[in-house]
Request: fold
Amino acid sequence: GFGFADNFIMIVCGDMIDAKFGYLGLTTMAAAGLGNWVSDTIGLGLGDAIERTATRLGLSNGGLTPTQERMQIAKFTTLGAKIVGITLGCFAGMVPLFFMTPNKTAELSHEELEVYDEIFRPYGMTTAQYGEL
Reply:
């Protein structure tokens, strides 16, 4: 659950920051970093909520005794399950990427934007595609 929430929030917030503040000279990587900060901050509280929800759903540590939890095979199994879980969650959290369109206009001059609006936008070209011309 956490991998999904973390990636989902980071992508949505990073894209919004990039689109809204990129014209100020903020790089895409800086926007991604700020999106990650927002996601991590929200994740501090969200992680506990996800754990409580999992417990309410009946998910547990398998009822292992403390001695069993210290066994090497239990540690490897726990690590493997965490890696699989976070990986699947992160990939699922990338769903917003299917619905996003490039909209950053940071590097276009006023004249270039006028040309884009009059000639290219009516035909569905994005500002990112126009910027690559």
Remarks:
- The chain has a mean pLDDT of 83.
- The CA atoms of residues 34 and 42 lie 12 Å apart.
- The helical segments are 2-21, 28-56, 66-69, 72-92, 110-120, 127-131.
